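Request from the bench team (R.T.):
"We need a structural guess for the complex before ordering more flavin mononucleotide. Sequence and SMILES attached. Just send the tokens back."

Command: build protein-flavin mononucleotide structure.
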Amino acid sequence: MQTNAVIENILTRRSIRSFEDRRIPRADLELIAKAGQYAPSAMNRQSFQITVVQNEEIIKKLYTAVPKYMQGIDPATYCFYGSKNLMLISDLADKEIGQMDCACVAENIFLAAHSLGIGSVWVNQLRDTSDGPEVRAALHEAGVPDDHRVWVIAALGYPTAPAADKEKVAKIHFCE
Ligand SMILES: Cc1cc2nc3c(=O)[nH]c(=O)nc-3n(C[C@H](O)[C@H](O)[C@H](O)COP(=O)(O)O)c2cc1C
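Reply to R.T.: structure attached below.
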């Protein structure tokens, strides 16, 4: 099958859940966020926001607050996999389709990061906890608009080890 660099980048991206303890340089973060900004959005509303957080205090406030509003999360280990670089992808809380817009943004971010040798993973828990008062306070401090829900956290960083390959089994069906 003929391929190219873009397709190769898509085929080799895998979620990374263990990161080196270091920051991603600003120029790379700007490029990755720009890739997110160029995602499609329903009716081209572009009402989403990408909030880039490297402030360790705010990251800690977030991962400390989330388990207070969600069952089944162990506060002793929950820390966004140790990522020092978060992109909070949010949209208007009352805009149901914002979830889909943000998913498109997230995938652009994951792929752009991967093309730069930076690992990433989707962290989902803010979707259901954005309005927990302590979470909301930390989001406010980070600059996320108060009327937004964070549909995705893209946790980013330099992988400590290559990701295990995963078999992709979802069906592709041609009807000719
Ligand atoms: C909607 C959605 C929610 C996800 N939530 C989480 C999450 O909360 N924590 C996590 O570690 N991975 C999460 N993931 C990552 C998936 O587990 C991962 O994409 C899947 O196992 C396939 O692996 P791959 O990304 O390496 O191809 C999520 C992915 C999606 C699309």
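Two things stood out. Residues 35-157 form a domain with the NADH Oxidase fold (CATH 3.40.109.10). The mean pLDDT is 97.
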